[in-house]
Design a protein that fits this description.
single chain; mainly beta; 3-stranded antiparallel β-sheet; 0% helix; 35% strand
Length: 179
């Protein structure tokens, strides 16, 4: 396609790798469709911008058991997000460190239970990269640095709670302690 004698865009079928190429040589490439089926309005829903950024003006829908992947620094595709055959949404890849980061807060919200699972048995809550609370899920141990506030301790087995509590450092008690 030419404008004022200068080629601006072209469509090409590349035989070598069976690829249809749509090329805009002087700007963005837009895919448009009617905003409502049967109408003749042109609404841009996908734009490939000069420089490589992609803008989507609608929902991105993936079929079940399809995924969004990204290449790591070595060029290997890694899962970013997928919905598996059990209808579970997975974020990240099992062989990749996944960090969820926010400028103000991050909220986990569920209509059901919230599970935190570590195959190593080591779950840590950190503040500024310093571990403040650690759970050893293999042993059932909890350790904390700082003040631990407990409203009620029960072993559930009828055995004295002191058989299950180990305190190092100073202690302060408010209320009654019974064995």
């Amino acid at each position: 396609f030419q404008q004022d004698g200068t080629r601006r865009a072209f469509i090409q079928f590349h035989d070598t790798d069976n690829t249809l190429k749509l090329t805009s040589e002087f700007g963005n490439l837009e895919l448009r469709a009617a905003s409502t089926a049967g109408s003749d309005s042109d609404t841009t829903y996908l734009t490939v911008k000069a420089g490589g950024n992609i803008s989507v003006g609608g929902n991105i829908e993936l079929a079940n058991q399809k995924k969004i992947t990204i290449d790591n620094t070595g060029g290997t595709a890694k899962d970013l997000a997928t919905v598996n055959g059990s209808n579970q949404m997975l974020i990240g890849a099992a062989d990749l460190t996944t960090i969820v980061q926010g400028d103000s807060s991050i909220k986990l919200d569920s209509a059901g239970p919230v599970y935190i699972d570590s195959d190593t048995g080591d779950i840590q809550f950190q503040d500024n990269s310093n571990t403040k609370i650690r759970f050893n899920t293999l042993k059932g141990d909890i350790s904390a640095s700082g003040v631990l506030y407990v409203d009620h301790i029960s072993t559930g087995s009828g055995e004295p709670a002191e058989n299950y509590i180990s305190i190092t450092g100073s202690t302060s008690v408010f209320g009654n302690i019974t064995a």
